[in-house]
Amino acid sequence: MVDLRSQYLRIKGEIDDAIQSVLTSTAFIQGKEVGEFAKALGSYVDTPYVITCANGTDALQIAMMALDYKPGDEIILPVHTYVATAEVIALLGMKPVFVDVDEKTFNIDITRIEKKITKRTVAIVPVHLYGQCADMEQILGLASEYNLHVIEDAAQALGAKYSFTNKKTRHAGTMGIIGTTSFFPSKNLGCYGDGGALFASDENLAEKIRMIANHGQKVKYHHDIIGVNSRLDTLQAAILKVKLNYVDEYTRKRNDVAAYYDDKL
Ligand SMILES: Cc1ncc(COP(=O)(O)O)c(C=O)c1O
Fold this sequence. Notes:
Layout: H1 4-10, H2 12-25, H3 32-45, E1 50-53, H4 56-66, E2 74-78, H5 83-91, E3 95-99, E4 121-124, H6 136-146, E5 149-153, E6 161-163, E7 169-171, E8 178-182, E9 196-200, H7 203-212, H8 234-244, H9 247-264
Parallel strand pairs: 2-3, 2-4, 4-5, 5-8
Antiparallel strand pairs: 1-9, 6-7, 8-9
Helix pairs in contact: 2-8, 3-8, 4-5, 4-7
The structure holds pyridoxal-5'-phosphate.
């Protein structure tokens, strides 16, 4: 569905230079491009707390580890998503509680969430699908009423914006306590392998997420908490840094194609 070859050929010079520069530096793990890309991504989605990781599935798992959920806790998510959203909940010994989707948007049906909330519910995970945001205003309202976290799965929605009724707009992934995204090659912003990121809502959480994604350490060989090995490769960060400059153009073009189909069909 995404013509990755022609996408690459159009920016080949820039991409090849970026890759070559990493090869020359040999800083394959946590080279400078990782931090540079995280910063640029933060400016793009308008949040200072960006933590990159190895893929969008890990991003969800790390989010749930950072929020200290326990086996048996329940997490509400839409039935219609990629398996990763439910998979990580089960992997951490928790219970995925599925809610049907709205037939127009295919996003979680807000009218069906409340009856699935129990004493064990800890979070709602809206999955913003096909570049559209779930009904965040209502979801955030419900979550605050029941004291639940909102973790946004924005793997398919990087660049999408949500407008609140007070006219404030926020990027997908930056409205809940944590947002996650994926840089799988066919995603809105895709790398040349696996990659992912989290958006945290404050510095303390960002710090904890950063530690979990890197074996629970802040200082090398000082492993303060249980973590995982989930770092974004420097090569992928270098590629993403280049492609981030084109992501709006890719989205515009995809919208043009969609409009053409709408018109002709
Ligand atoms: C909605 C959704 N969540 C999570 C993921 C997992 O991302 P990744 O493939 O980078 O692990 C994907 C993508 O495949 C996805 O579409």
